[in-house]
Write a structure and sequence with these properties.
Layout lengths: L8 H11 L7 E4 L2 E4 L23 H27 L6 H34 L3 H24 L6 H37 L1 H19 L3 H16 L10
Antiparallel strand pairs: 1-2
Bound molecules: fe (ii) ion (2 copies).
Length: about 240
C-alpha cells in the first residue's frame, strides 16, 4: 500500500506535474521540508482503479474536502429531486434512496466520524473554534435525522401525501450542509495543521487512510465516486456540459 521511492522518481514527478494527476497527492509536507514520495507506477492514468498501490499520502484536509465533493454531488441530486417533487414530475426514487444510503455510508458513518473523533476534540481541547465545532456537532446529529427521514420516505412507492414532506427534508438537508461543508473547508480544515503541527498532521493522514480502508474497503473513495456518477445518470444529470452557463 505504501508509495515507493524508486529510480523512476524523476519521470514520475514530472509526469504527475504536467498531467495534473487526479488522485491522492504525491507530495507530502513533513516538518523540515517537502518529502517527495514516488509514484506507485511510472505511467499516468486517469482511472482511479488502475494500479495496485493506492497513494497514501493525501493530506487530511484534502481527504475530507474530496469527501465533501461526494456530499455536494448528492446534494445536487437532492435539489433536483425536491424540484421534481414540487412540480409533480417523475422522480427516480430508487436513485434518491441510493443517494441517501451513500450519504449515510460515506459521509455520516465515515467522514463525520473522522471529524468527531480526530478533529473536533483537538479544537475543543485547545479552546479553538469551539463555537463553530459545537454547531458542527449539532448539525451532524440533525443531518442523520434528516437522512433517516429521506430514507424512510424514498423506500418503495412514494405516496402523494409524502411528496411535500420529502421535498422539505431534502431542502433542509441542503440548506444546512452547504454552509456546514463550506465552513469546514474554509475555516476548520485550514486551521487543523497549525493546531496539531506538521508531524501529527502527517500521522493523521495515515490514520484517515487506515480508517477509510476499514470503513469503506479498498478504493472506497473511488467506488463512491463511481456510485454517485451512476446516480447522476439515473437522474439524467450526468452531462456536465449541459450545465455551462
Ligand atoms: Fe461536518
Ligand atoms: Fe465535513
Amino acid at each position: 500500500m505504501r508509495s515507493r521511492f524508486t529510480a523512476s522518481f524523476a519521470t514520475c514527478y514530472f509526469t504527475r506535474m504536467f498531467t495534473n494527476q487526479p488522485r491522492r497527492g504525491f507530495l507530502k509536507s513533513a516538518g523540515a521540508g517537502v518529502v517527495l514520495l514516488g509514484c506507485a507506477h511510472g505511467s499516468h492514468s486517469d482511472s482511479p482503479h488502475e494500479g495496485g498501490d493506492k497513494d497514501d499520502n493525501v493530506t487530511p484536509a484534502e481527504d475530507l474536502m474530496r469527501e465533501h465533493g461526494i456530499l455536494r454531488r448528492v446534494m445536487y441530486l437532492y435539489d433536483d429531486a425536491a424540484r421534481r417533487l414540487d412540480e409533480h414530475h417523475e422522480l427516480p426514487v430508487d436513485a434518491l434512496a441510493a443517494g441517501a444510503a451513500l450519504i449515510r455510508r460515506v459521509i455520516e458513518d465515515y467522514h463525520e466520524k473522522l471529524e468527531e473523533e480526530f478533529l473536533f476534540p483537538r479544537f475543543e481541547k485547545a479552546g479553538k473554534l469551539v463555537e463553530l465545532v459545537t454547531t458542527l456537532r449539532k448539525q451532524h446529529v440533525v443531518g442523520r435525522t434528516l437522512t433517516d427521514q429521506i430514507t424512510a420516505l424514498s423506500k418503495g412507492k412514494l405516496a402523494d401525501s409524502d411528496r411535500a414532506t420529502l421535498a422539505s427534508a431534502l431542502r433542509r438537508f441542503n440548506h444546512m450542509y452547504r454552509p456546514h461543508a463550506a465552513r469546514e473547508d474554509t475555516v476548520l480544515f485550514p486551521a487543523l495543521r497549525g493546531l496539531v503541527g506538521a508531524k501529527a498532521y502527517g500521522e493523521l493522514g495515515e490514520q484517515f487512510e487506515h480508517k477509510e480502508t476499514q470503513m469503506l474497503g479498498e478504493h472506497g473513495f473511488e467506488h463512491a465516486v463511481d456510485e454517485v456518477a451512476r446516480l447522476e445518470q439515473a437522474f439524467g444529470l450526468d452531462d456536465l456540459t449541459k450545465l455551462t452557463a
